[in-house]
Automatic annotation (TrEMBL):
<dbReference type="InterPro" id="IPR051093">
    <property type="entry name" value="Neuroligin/BSAL"/>
</dbReference>
<keyword id="KW-1133">Transmembrane helix</keyword>
<protein>
    <submittedName>
        <fullName>Carboxylesterase type B domain-containing protein</fullName>
    </submittedName>
</protein>
<keyword id="KW-0812">Transmembrane</keyword>
<feature type="transmembrane region" description="Helical">
    <location>
        <begin position="6"/>
        <end position="24"/>
    </location>
</feature>
<dbReference type="InterPro" id="IPR002018">
    <property type="entry name" value="CarbesteraseB"/>
</dbReference>
<comment type="similarity">
    <text>Belongs to the type-B carboxylesterase/lipase family.</text>
</comment>
<keyword id="KW-0472">Membrane</keyword>
<keyword id="KW-0732">Signal</keyword>
<feature type="domain" description="Carboxylesterase type B">
    <location>
        <begin position="42"/>
        <end position="359"/>
    </location>
</feature>
<dbReference type="InterPro" id="IPR029058">
    <property type="entry name" value="AB_hydrolase_fold"/>
</dbReference>
<dbReference type="Pfam" id="PF00135">
    <property type="entry name" value="COesterase"/>
</dbReference>
<dbReference type="InterPro" id="IPR019819">
    <property type="entry name" value="Carboxylesterase_B_CS"/>
</dbReference>
Length: 362
């Protein structure tokens, strides 16, 4: 069993249900009944009060919170830096709308048939969403933290239809948390030294997990029963974090769908060439890592993303700006193959997802 009282078969059924909705882009009918919004709900987390909403589908009630900040906006002096905890706020923060997607190449109808490309894109994107059973009892529930896929270049926590999450997870008394994290060069740019060590997107995921560990009880979650789950590069992320000393103790088990830490192209050992190639394309003419960072911080988001397209590798399906081996004290101190030989083991379920790339086939 992965959770108390929850069979592996049930987990597999839930996963395929979620992916079925994901592939279609939306649900044609709601298995549990007609969705009704009932009333607001306010809770107080570590940073302040938040206002979500109770939803009713048939005879089932759900507590839904969207767009909760788990980190300070990674802009200005925090651009290309490790994330920092969010500032505390006064009053009640509205948590009923998804946050913007993290900066990525623009989506089009051709590349995103589900029409999710209309979602706003911003560098201020480090938010998460919590879907929970209502707290009518003193029960505690297992928690799933889900990391979206997208080759570390695209994707968002809002890509996954709400009704699929509620139907397949929350209705079975599981709290489901989905997160955003920085992508592409803004999340994984590295000069291989202390100036730009890279892996900012992974540090985002770690801070999100710390947030869940700190706040899970507010939503009725069991902080000692957290599963980290991902698909594609999200699965690679979960696998990397399971091997990382920096994420130790933040979750108890992992579920990997079509990705691991040793997936070809998931982790690079030499990021420097790609970074300096991008420096040339942006006409920074930097002489060292400090000058490069100063120049990149002055660039517009789209200037960096457009230049990164031109600096991509000639090897198909391999991206330049992905997790890197960042040495002692980093998220990936050694290659994953080596970490796997001595890092603590934890329960794992892994497999592939049916028709995963069907939307990419022309």
């Amino acid at each position: 069993m992965l959770f108390n009282g929850l069979l592996n078969l049930s987990i597999i059924q839930m996963i395929f249900g979620l992916l079925f909705y994901q592939i279609l882009g939306q649900s044609k009918s709601n298995r549990l009944g007609v969705l009704r919004r009932t009333h607001p709900i306010e809770l107080t987390i570590e940073s302040g009060a938040i206002r979500g909403e109770y939803l009713t589908i048939g005879a089932n009630d759900f507590a839904v919170f969207k767009g909760i900040p788990y980190a300070a906006p990674p802009v200005g002096s925090l651009r290309f830096q490790k994330p920092e905890p969010p500032a505390k706020w006064r009053g009640v923060m509205n948590a009923t709308q998804y946050s913007p997607m993290c900066a990525q190449r623009s989506r089009t109808k051709a590349t995103d048939p589900s029409h999710l490309y209309r979602v706003h894109i911003s560098e201020d994107c480090l938010y998460l969403n919590v879907f929970a059973p209502p707290q009518f009892t003193n029960d505690t529930y297992p928690v799933i933290v889900f990391i979206h896929g997208g080759a570390f270049q695209s994707g968002s926590s809002s890509d996954y239809p709400q009704d699929a999450i509620l139907n397949n997870f929350v209705s079975r008394k599981i709290i489901f948390v989905s997160i955003n994290y920085r992508l592409g060069p803004l999340g994984f740019l590295s000069t291989g030294d202390e100036i730009l060590p890279g892996n900012f997107g992974l540090w985002d995921q770690i801070l999100a997990l710390q947030w869940v560990k700190l706040n899970a009880h507010v939503f009725g979650g069991d902080r000692n029963n957290i599963m980290l789950m991902g698909q594609g590069s999200g699965a690679s992320s979960a696998s990397i974090l399971a091997l990382s000393p920096r994420a130790e103790g933040l979750f108890n088990k992992i579920l990997l769908m079509s990705g691991t830490a040793i997936t070809p192209g998931a982790v690079r050992k030499t990021p420097v060439n790609a970074t300096w190639n991008l420096d040339d394309r942006l006409h920074c003419r930097s002489f060292n890592s400090t000058e490069l960072l100063d120049c990149f911080k002055k660039m517009l988001r789209d200037e960096i993303l457009d230049a990164a397209i031109g600096s991509s590798t000639t090897i198909p399906d391999y991206e330049q700006f992905v997790p890197v081996v960042d040495g002692p004290g980093g998220v990936i101190p050694e290659p994953p193959e080596i970490l796997a030989t001595y890092r603590p083991k934890m329960p794992i379920m892994l497999g592939t997802t049916k028709d995963e790339s069907s939307l990419r086939i022309c």
